[in-house]
Amino acid sequence: MASPSVSSSPAAGSSLHDDLRERVRDATDIVELVGSYIALRRAGKAMTGLCPWHEDSRPSLQVNPERQTFRCWVCNIGGDVFTFLMKMEKLEFREALEQLADRAGIAITRGRGGLSPDDKAALFKALAWAADRFAACLAGGPEARAARDYLAGRGLTADTISRFSLGFAPPAWDWLLGQASAAGIASAHLAKVGLAVERQNGSGHYDRFRDRVIFPIRDPLGRCVAFGGRVLPGAAPDSAKYINSPETPVFSKSSMLYGLDTAREAMAASRRAVVVEGYTDCLAARQAGIDDVVAVLGTALGERHAKLLRRHADQIVLVLDGDDAGRRRADEILDVILAEPIDVRIARLPAGVDPCEFILEHGKDAFESLLAAAVDPLEYRMDEAVAKLAGRDGDDAVLAAVESVLKPLAAVSERSPLSPSQRQLREDQVLGRLSRRFGLSREALKNRLHDLRTQRRPATSPSAAALPAPVAVGRLPAWDREVIEVLVGQPDSVGLVVREVQAADLESSAGRAVLEAARHLHDAGKPVALAGLLLVIADPALQSLLVAVDEATAGRGAVDPAERLTHLEDALRRRSAQRQAHASVLALKSSRLDPGSEAVLLERLVAQRRAAQGMSDPKDG
């Protein structure tokens, strides 16, 4: 493993006197953070839960509230709140810092065109204000009568409309903009969040949402970040049925789902996430008492959605209309299921019926039965492929059907969250089912899959850099482990280590990197301990090692600091004597000495070796 450089750490890019990282971490409770992703239960002084990074049936992830660290003993992964969020969300350190700062209410300046805290607050204020204006218009505005009739016709009650803050945007081109100035809302902020659009001639702005029912879209914290607008029946034929807010600094539709902020608890209880395609479909299900339902925002279910949902559920059930568009979307889902460690199912509705209509007509129990009968996308695609073979003869038709399944399997990236063993198991399952369904040998299917992968792989492209392998505590040289244990948990002895131990004294690159980080902290007047080291060391493997050393040391029980210091001083003396003895041996081998000098050197060598073994000199007795 290459020696990690402290200078490449996120902390080293700025002054060690900048306490922002420490303030953000101190303001973030790791139990609360981890608990927002997985269920935790108490186990003694620690909290445990199922690890999200491997197939965990017995809780392997341990959270230490006292030290504010986490560790999975199976994956050998550990760290602090920053490490956890970076791994869960696939974030860089700066992004994790910003998210945790937002969560803690700590102001942080965004660089390189990012949002300042004031800018971001202004955008959320504009969005919340607009949501209130739309809702007020729907509730009492005379121009919203048709919208109220439409929602009533869809079976939505006044309670549901109020609970989800539905609204209406009148047909006027500047209805929202006209009210903004008096409310202290800048048109530039409305444009920044997609509520206003600049005119082509540059003479000002106009409202994006006009003559539409409005559905506020909220982030997991419950803040309004965007809107969806549904056209009313009888609108011009060229009007888009739905329009959504564009991508903005606070909204990305590919990583957000409608209703997720109020569905997470139900998902955690059912371990299921039901995904529908329309806002009213989601609301009809919620109104019927099916609370683990969310809706996509005008896009197909993608990998980012799957990653988001598998934090809360073990199974995704996608409800699709029984038309050609639903069939195409079902085909797209196979790419997701093969790349993500989550069970995805497809529930098909009768042709011409959407979930809202189905629930209103048949009720909650019938809809639950439809969800229970959902099939996985692979089975669905094979059924479709067999159906397409009807009336067609020849091997080419069979090959086309088989390749419609093999191609997405070949595209599964090695950077998929699935482990190599999981990918292999899934591949074997798919090939076995294809073999049985189409009467082809596994060997032939495997060869074709290999050819498809070869075609996809660029011949000259370098392979992706491998992530650093975790450093196992048990494989550390004894002295390196001793030094790291002191730096992590013995503040009274840190000064001695920093002064007396040199990088050359350590055998492992991990030990040298930790020592270098400790020296940076010590020279800057910062306390050297687990918390400080986790801030200045960016390497995830080293962070895991530090947590593992800390946990192992704590597991041995309390150690008297004075006794530990005495032991460390003795060890340093012995190692110094070992180096001196080694130098004396080299001198004896490489120098021509007279008998007297050689006798003196031999006597010195004996004394040095006795000192290295912790034995006193007989003369001292």
So what's the CATH class of the domain at 115-248?
Answer: Alpha Beta
- Quote the beta fraction: 5-15%
Helix amount: 40-55%
Backbone structural class: alpha+beta
Give the radius of gyration.
32 Å
Number of helices: 26
Number of strands: 15
The CATH H-level superfamily of the domain at 115-248 is DNA primase, catalytic core, N-terminal domain
Give the overall silhouette: globular
Major β-sheet profile = 5 strands, antiparallel
Could you name the CATH topology of the domain at 115-248? DNA primase DNAg catalytic core, N-terminal domain
Average pLDDT figure: 79
User: Low-confidence runs (pLDDT<50, min 5 residues)?
Assistant: 1-18, 458-468, 615-621
Distance between the termini: 47 Å
CATH architecture of the domain at 115-248: Alpha-Beta Complex
**Taking strands numbered 1, 2, ... along the chain, how are they ordered across the largest sheet?**
1-2-3-4-5
In short:
This protein has 621 residues and is α+β, with helices and mostly antiparallel strands. Helix 11 (279-287) packs parallel to helix 14.
Features of the shown structure:
DNA Primase, Chain A; four-stranded antiparallel beta sheet; globular; disordered N terminus; DNA primase DNAg catalytic core, N-terminal domain; 621 residues; alpha+beta
Sequence-ordered SSE layout with sheet pairings:
Blueprint: H1 20-26, H2 30-35, E1 41-43, E2 46-49, E3 61-64, E4 69-72, E5 77-79, H3 81-89, H4 93-104, H5 117-140, H6 145-153, H7 158-163, E6 167-169, H8 175-180, H9 187-192, E7 196-198, E8 205-207, E9 212-218, E10 224-231, E11 242-244, H10 260-270, E12 272-276, H11 279-287, E13 293-295, H12 303-309, E14 315-320, H13 324-339, E15 343-348, H14 355-362, H15 364-372, H16 377-389, H17 395-410, H18 420-438, H19 442-456, H20 478-489, H21 494-500, H22 509-523, H23 530-536, H24 540-555, H25 561-590, H26 595-612
Parallel strand pairs: 12-13, 12-14, 14-15
Antiparallel strand pairs: 1-2, 2-3, 3-4, 4-5, 6-9, 7-8, 9-10, 10-11
